[in-house]
Q: What sequence folds into this?
């Protein structure tokens, strides 16, 4: 998989992609992540990429030219993208099914918003998906981009040492993960459920499913709402 990211503050994405699972995935050539400074496509020698809003109002807006020129240049370099994604608070809420779907892509381009956002014409004519990581506003789209990339990359084949691990995460099959325990079996009088210690795989699987369903109903009942 190849992922290009357009950012006004590319330094914010240095650390998330240089450690842990994402770092290993890149080292194995499973994914190639390139963060581009949008100012490379600035409209003048001063590095300008933004301007005032038409109609007045507070906050600057990223102009069409730098974004579209960047999209066209990167598309010429890498070919058509499966999706051009704009990270924005009013986008479609990121979910496990969306991450699952995007993990099947070959090439993605992510646009990190900044200031007041980007010109609406880019959103309607060039962006193919808009994704939000929550109903709140951040200083820019870099942190949401990092979250999105992490949610996708961990699903790629050979990224996790145990590839079945991702299949039992919360939100797969619209269920939260069941409670989990490790050693010691007795910690200060707090014990692990006996059923997890008996070695009966069928009983353990049934216990996990029951507790996944209970936790989902208690904490996120909307996940089971098929209406």
A:
């Amino acid at each position: 998989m190849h992922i290009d990211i357009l950012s006004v503050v590319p330094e914010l994405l240095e650390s998330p992609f240089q450690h842990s699972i994402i770092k290993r995935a890149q080292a194995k050539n499973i994914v190639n992540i390139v963060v581009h400074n949008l100012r490379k496509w600035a409209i003048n020698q001063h590095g300008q990429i933004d301007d005032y809003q038409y109609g007045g109002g507070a906050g600057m807006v990223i102009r069409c030219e730098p974004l579209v020129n960047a999209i066209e240049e990167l598309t010429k370099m890498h070919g058509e993208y499966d999706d051009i994604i704009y990270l924005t608070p009013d986008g479609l809420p990121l979910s496990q099914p969306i991450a699952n779907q995007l993990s099947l892509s070959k090439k993605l381009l992510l646009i990190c918003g900044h200031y007041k956002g980007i010109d609406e014409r880019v959103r309607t004519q060039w962006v193919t998906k808009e994704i939000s990581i929550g109903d709140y506003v951040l200083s820019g789209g870099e942190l949401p981009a990092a979250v999105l990339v992490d949610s996708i990359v961990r699903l790629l084949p050979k990224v996790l040492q145990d590839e079945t691990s991702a299949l039992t995460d919360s939100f797969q099959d619209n269920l939260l993960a069941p409670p989990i325990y490790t050693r010691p079996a007795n910690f200060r009088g707090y014990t692990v459920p006996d059923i997890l210690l008996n070695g009966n795989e069928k009983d353990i699987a049934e216990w996990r499913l029951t507790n996944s369903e209970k936790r989902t109903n208690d904490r996120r009942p909307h996940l089971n709402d098929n209406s």
